[in-house]
């Protein structure tokens, strides 16, 4: 099974890119972030015509998450992260696909710092960590994937010294990510490529993609039963070079049917 995550940075404006990549890559499950479309403006028919069932949680102008499944049923579990009923941001959606719990997330950016946006990000991280603990305790196979807006280590950012005061690289944000992983999750890309420079995002400015001045902020966290089935992982970096593309590239993993 191939599972992918992709921050599309506007699902309608990038629809040709998304459809081209879906045809080329043919993932079984896809998590999308940053739809930037209200619920009624999501391009449902185009996605279904591409062979995917889909659920989504839209929001006008900002945020938005979706889960796609090729020739598979999607059983929605929730479309908001527990812990704050007043939080109206469309940043989390969860479903069961082929017996796997799939949590698709778009974690807050947190800039500028210091300030309320960083505080919101850290609170959101706390809610995610609490929810993730319950998912682990369930014993079910779980994948938590999406745009975490955090570079966990210096290996995940092209010039660490330039990002020290950024909300994506602040010590308390990196510690929040570590606290989550330390519950018992596996960072899929780092398991397979522990020492390699891997990026998933390149800014539109200053020829960042051409210079390979990137960040690794899109992650796959796997529960123990899925960790044992992890067979491959990678980044479709070339998609970032397509015309009118997102500033993120799709990230994917492959799971074997049994432990590898």
Radius of gyration: 17 Å
Shape: globular
Individual helix count = 7
Listing every helix as H and every strand as E from the N terminus to the C terminus, the arrangement reads EHEHEEEEEHEHEHEHEEHEE
The CATH architecture comes to 4-Layer Sandwich
Topology, number of strands: 14
Question: Could you tell me the strand content as a percent range?
Answer: 25-35%
Q: What name does the CATH topology carry?
A: Deoxyribonuclease I, Chain A
- The number of distinct structural domains comes to 1
**Backbone structural class:** alpha+beta
CATH class descriptor: Alpha Beta
Distance between the termini: 13 Å
Low-confidence stretches: none
How would you characterize the largest beta sheet?
A: 6 strands, mixed
The main sheet orders its strands as 3-4-2-1-14-13
Mean pLDDT: 97
Percent helix range? 10-25%
Query: What would you give as the CATH superfamily?
Result: Endonuclease/exonuclease/phosphatase
């Amino acid at each position: 099974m191939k599972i992918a995550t992709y921050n599309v940075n506007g699902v309608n404006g990038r629809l040709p890119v998304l459809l081209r990549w879906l045809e080329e890559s043919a993932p079984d499950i896809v998590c999308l972030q940053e739809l930037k479309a209200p619920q009624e403006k999501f391009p449902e028919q185009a996605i279904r015509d591409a062979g995917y069932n889909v659920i989504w949680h839209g929001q006008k102008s900002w945020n938005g998450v979706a889960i796609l499944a090729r020739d598979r049923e999607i059983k929605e579990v929730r479309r908001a992260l527990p812990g704050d009923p007043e939080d109206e941001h469309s940043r989390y959606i969860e479903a069961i696909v082929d017996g796997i719990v799939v949590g698709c997330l778009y974690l807050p950016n947190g800039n500028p710092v210091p300030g309320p946006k960083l505080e919101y990000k850290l609170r959101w991280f706390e809610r995610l960590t609490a929810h993730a603990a319950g998912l682990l305790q369930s014993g079910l196979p779980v994948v938590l994937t999406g745009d975490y807006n955090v570079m966990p280590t210096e290996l995940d950012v092209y010039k660490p010294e330039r990002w020290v005061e950024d909300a994506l690289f602040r010590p308390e944000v990196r510690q929040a990510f570590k606290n989550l992983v330390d519950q018992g999750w596996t960072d899929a890309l780092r398991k397979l490529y522990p020492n390699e420079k891997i990026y998933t995002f390149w800014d539109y400015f200053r020829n960042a993609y051409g210079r390979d001045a990137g960040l690794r902020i899109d992650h796959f966290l796997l529960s123990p039963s899925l960790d044992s089935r992890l067979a491959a992982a990678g980044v479709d970096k070339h998609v970032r070079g397509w015309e009118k593309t997102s500033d993120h590239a799709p990230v994917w993993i492959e799971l074997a049917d049994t432990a590898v």
